[in-house]
Each structure stands twice: as C-alpha cells, then as structure tokens.
Design a protein that fits this description.
With 213 residues, the protein is mainly β. The protein is built from 2 helices and 17 strands. Strands 3-12-9-6-7 form a 5-stranded mixed beta sheet, with no helix packed on it.
C-alpha cells in the first residue's frame, strides 16, 4: 500500500511562505489503470486537511504533467474543481508539477515573522531584514509555492527528475516500483543546483488517516 507523503519546502521564490500552511497536490488515488482518469486537487492547509482550489490560470505560472520524456500543460477549464481531471496518457510514472504566481501577505509586527522563519530554520532572514533597513512593523512579504505529485499509471515505472522549479524536491526512488521499507531518498534543489544542510518537513498520512510530521 502506498503511504501518502508531503515534503514541505521552507524556501519560496522571494521570501518564505507567510503562514504555517502547506500547499500540495492531492490525487484522489495514487495509482490508476492505463487509460483511467486522474483526479487531483490543489490544497492549502495543515496536517493533510485543507480547502481545494479551482483551476485558475491567473493564479499559477506553471501547471504541467510529465510522463517519460513528455512534458505538457494540464488542460482544464477555468473554475474546474478538482483542478485536475485528465485521462492518463500512456503508462508509467506521471508527475504533476505546479508553480503559483507571487502572492503577498502583510505583517503588523516583526515577532510573528521572526517566529515563523525561526521554525523553518531560516533565522538568517532576520539579519538580512535588518541589514536592508526594512521596517519592523507594517511590512509585506512576497512568496510563491511549488508542488509536485507522483502518480503510478499501470506498472508505474519511470523516474522523477528536476523540472526547473525555483526550489524543488526530486525523488531518487520510485515509490511504485522500488523497495520503500527504509523510506524514500530525495534530493532538494534550489535554482537548478543541489541544496545541502537545509530543513525540510515530511508529513506522512497512514491508511487510518493519522498524520505524523
């Protein structure tokens, strides 16, 4: 049985995701038959609970699927909810790829921002904030979100790869064909290069619905 995982990145495009909410692509099922229908929601929330967002092109820079050497846009109609309803193209490992447009959140006090970046192991941003002379109250943060989801179509064989996102997690093993007894190996990348000594958070949802972080 495939266990569902979210691997959350603290680093966003310009700053850091403002609220302690994760963004993920949530397939209705992680394995589908060849020619079957892939249905997936875009969600923002906590502990695998969150609202589903509609297919709204003004809110994303990129929304693609990849199978083998083929990468193509996810086709949808404005307002579709769930955001993904598509026929499985071919057979193998299918990767959904999503990048949001920039969003803005306003802070009225520095302490709230400091608490968040410290939790995300990014306390260095406080020094940068001070060096740049940014205000300690009434300031704004610009952020964007990135997500991928691996879906097994038929035999599910294939490899994840880097798709050029600003920040990205690449699965170094296939959860549908490789042995997962000791977990899954991943690589964190930033601006096209491996990124070491960085914190990520792993959310694991078991078959009984319980979530561990």
């Amino acid at each position: 049985m495939i266990r569902s995982l979210i691997l959350a990145l603290p680093l966003a495009c310009i700053a850091f995701a403002a609220k302690a909410h994760e963004f993920w692509i949530d397939p209705e099922t992680h394995q589908v038959a060849p020619g079957g229908t892939i249905i997936a929601s875009l969600r923002v929330g906590q502990n695998y609970e969150g609202s589903g967002y509609a297919f709204l092109p003004p809110r994303f820079r990129r929304f693609d699927f990849a199978v083998g050497d083929t990468v193509a846009p996810v086709d949808g109609t404005i307002g579709d909810r769930p955001a993904v309803t598509m026929e499985a193209p071919g057979e193998g490992l299918l990767v959904l790829i999503h990048e949001t447009t920039d969003q803005i959140v306003a802070y009225t006090e520095l302490e709230k921002f400091e608490s968040f970046v410290t939790h995300k192991d990014a306390a260095w941003t406080m020094e940068s904030h001070a060096e740049n002379g940014f205000p300690t109250d009434r300031f704004r943060e610009v952020y964007s979100r990135y997500a991928k989801s691996l879906i097994g179509v038929g035999h599910g064989a294939g490899d994840d790869q880097a798709f050029g996102l600003e920040t990205e997690i690449v699965a170094l093993e296939n959860p549908y064909t490789d042995e997962m007894v000791d977990g899954i190996d991943v690589e964190l990348r930033y601006q096209g290069q491996p990124r070491s000594d960085a914190q990520i958070e792993v959310f694991e949802k078991a078959a009984d619905g319980s979530v561990t972080i």
